[in-house]
Amino acid sequence: MVDPADAISKAREAVSHRADLPGMSLMEHLDELRKRIVRSALYLFAGFIVAYIFHEKLFSYVQAPLSSIHKTLNYTHPMDPLNLYLQVSLIGGAILASPFILFQVWLFIAPGLYQKERRFVVPFMAATVGLFLTGAAFGYFWVLPGALKILIVDFGHNFTPMVTIEEYMGFFLSIILGLGVSFELPILIFFLALFGIVSPRFLWKNIRYAILACSWWRPSSAPALTPGRCAFTPCRCWCST
């Protein structure tokens, strides 16, 4: 079983080994953090502006899985269409700005790394963006269409669906972003191993606990992603197709 005290001691040991690196005061750290956050926000805003120019095209991509089963979106509030365009533009802008934002993250943590570790900047950025897009694409092209077909066409064929913008976007994002973030797990493991917190032996020894944790986390956290819905059900439905 995983020993929390052992994990904490490994983290402390990893930090102590870096004591010889050039240090920064607390105010310097805060100033550096502020600078990186401001620049990331500017990149995000620029990406949002570019994405909003193409918001109709982006919306067509969002609606495509629903259109494939010949259904359309409905709205119950006058602000819903505008909110949808803004939300789609924000997501598109975040994807466009993600390499620049990740570079700011790297610049913030780089002073705490050895010179030999800084060579991972390009692989880090490529792997992070690539894995997220791979997970999002998996959700968009396979999981989401399969889930909509099972839930609306098969189970809901005796009813008249009224899919609202708010409900659909929540369902859409819970799958796309959820799978995108899930595919980032190798990056997390890489940094934990880099700092000496975990090792291949440790991961293999505790794999059964990881499987148990994933099995528990999915049903317990899914309702929080989309209120009143269970996000793991579409994945299970897709697997059954």
What gap, in angstroms, lies between the N and C termini?
36 Å
Task: Return the structural class.
Answer: mainly alpha
H and E order: HHHHHHHHHH
Q: Which of globular, elongated, flat, extended, rod-shaped describes the shape?
A: globular
For the biggest sheet, the summary is:
none
Any idea how many domains? 1
Number of DSSP E strands:
0
Strand content is: under 5%
Rg of Cα set: 21 Å
Mean of residue pLDDT values: 80
List low-pLDDT spans: 219-241
Helix fraction, binned, reads over 70%
Summary of the model, kept short:
The protein is mostly helical and 241 residues long. Helices cover 74% and strands 0% of the residues. The chain has one domain (26-239).
Topology:
Layout: H1 4-16, H2 26-53, H3 55-67, H4 80-109, H5 121-154, H6 165-182, H7 185-194, H8 200-205, H9 207-225, H10 232-239
Helix pairs in contact: 2-4, 3-4, 4-5, 5-6, 5-10
